Amino acid sequence: MGATPIPNLDVIIIGAGLSGMYQLYRLRELGLRVRVFEAGTDVGGTWYWNRYPGARFDSESYSYGYSFSKELLQEWDWSEHFAGQPETLRYCNYVADKFDLRRDIQFESRVKAAHYEEESRSWTITLEDGSRFNARFLITAIGPLSTPTLPRIEGLGDFKGASFHTARWPKEPVDFTGKRVAVIGTGATGIQTIQTIAKEVGHLTVFQRTANWAAPLHNGKIDAETQKKIKAGYPEIFARCQETFACFVHTPDTRGAFEVSDEEREANYERLYGERGFGIWQGNFKDILIDRKANATISDFVARKIRQRVKNPEVAEKLIPKNHGFGTRRLPLETFYFEVYNQDNVELVDIKETPIERITTKGIKTSAREFEFDIIIYATGFDALTGSFDKIDFRGVNDARLKEKWKHGPQTYLGIMVHEFPNMMMLMGPHTALGNIPRSIEYSVDWVTGLVRFAYDNKLTRLEATTAGVQSWTDHVKALGVGLLSNEIDSWMTGINSNVEGKQTRIIARYSGSAPAYRARCDEVAAKGYDELRLG
Ligand code: NA7
After folding, report:
1. Distance CA 112, CA 105 (A)
2. What confidence score (pLDDT) does residue 121 get?
């Protein structure tokens, strides 16, 4: 132990994104001494870091904001059906100001270690600067997609122009006018970036490894009349989110794709393709994500749309995924993305055909050509779900290491607790329901708050998940994944990241059951006095 006394707290929260902010708010209500440690210089998490051009919601704005404060709901006006990142970051700041959250948040404080001490039944965290803090409880609010990854390509540091990962975008605007720009990656982030900067660049080259399905977002401004309706309708909006599979507003279809005629199916797809948001994914026929033939009908439909929208048939074919069906990876939503490839100054490079060999001082060298660029954008994604845990040296009872424990995939109880890691709770960790994420955040924060309150009310100082509890939840999560087409394809949802050593084998790190079922299970645990935990 160092010479500096360690301040004593009741709860330490890591992260001041949407989870950490709300968790702080709730724990303050219990009168506890809470401190949040945040690596960034301000609140917002995902919306603080992801400042890349075109970053915006794919969830309807009014279904995304916090629902816990009626006052907040009435005060805040979302300007668009799918708000852009600057607006969402303003929203996060508004919330922080309104509830005076910053006084308990320590910024520029990256946690590098968190160790449990049995004697004191408490957690000590160590920040990058060496300072340490101690608390009875540790709550991680570090986000499922918050550790960006760069390609493992030779010469990455050699490039003399400007290069950015989308999730580490500078605060100052980047000028693309007349510039030769490369984008590597065509996931949800790459697509938003490409369709936005294509309007400004001199020349754009997109390096695509795997074609992704994407469907129109159909964003629009919210006029005064609609604003009024939204504000009056919040109870119904949130009630709807509570009923649906993944907390989105889109009502799932109870019919199978082949329970309707070919004409009806086509008309349904046409309607969904013309509607705002995730309806085509979340409100589609019930079997498109589990039945190969049903999936083929929607995949064929969207492929036809791509062929209609992209003028050059060769380019269109490159943009149509061949290795996975529609919706089996996280569906990007787009705004005239496919039309970008009709611009004379935009080129698509299929890097499965001509792999990138190295980054050079001037640009990118593929097996076929050498390209020169002023700017390279890496839209190459994240070490998802477990990556942010791996970066912190979490140690539990008898020095047990979390990274080691999760070597072959996460082992959790309700996605919230881990055996041998007493008094540590995870928000939006692996094995929890994600979906429309603030809805899941609010539920998990309330559940964790209930557990902390239970501990203080009952003078409990040690809460631990049992091996049986962990086994049963982990088995349950695995069983839920059986039969899903999404589990047969590489993506961050199946734990694959080609840029991270050891993440080339598919795992089940994501809870794929319904949010209502998840909540019912957690409610049951709470109602029974948390008797599935080892309490002391
Ligand atoms: P994603 O969805 O993981 O997409 C990353 C993209 O980058 C994807 O197209 C990858 O191709 C590509 N990629 C990754 N590494 C490389 C290398 N080394 N070389 C070439 N291409 C590469 O991340 P996003 O940021 O777009 O979205 C993440 C989530 O954030 C999203 O689902 C939303 O929930 C918000 P691949 O498909 O792996 O072949």
Report:
1. 17
2. 96
Whole-angstrom Cα distance, residue 138 to residue 14? Answer: 8
The single residue listed with the structure tokens 């496919």 is 338
Q: How far is the CA of 187 from the centre of ligand 1 (A)?
A: 5
DSSP secondary structure string for all residues of 65-83: S--S-HHHHHH---SBSS-
Which tokens in the block code for residue 486?
């999404």
Residues with CB under 6 A from ligand 1: 145, 151, 184-190, 209-210, 330, 351, 379-382, 492, 498-499
CATH 3.50.50.60 fits domain 9-43+101-146+384-535? yes
| Residue among 27, 376, 464 at smallest CA distance from 197 | 376
Q: Where, residue-wise, is CATH 3.50.50.60 in the chain? A: 9-43+101-146+384-535
Residue stretches of the chain with pLDDT short of 50: 1-3
- Closest-CA residue, ligand 1 atom 14, reads 380
Distances (CA, A) of 453 to 440, 449, 529: 20, 6, 12
Q: Which of 209, 210, 248, 494 should be mutated for ligand 1, with most atoms under 8 A from CB?
A: 209
pLDDT of residue 347: 98
pLDDT, tens digit, for every residue of 336-364?
Answer: 999 999 999 999 999 999 999 999 999 99
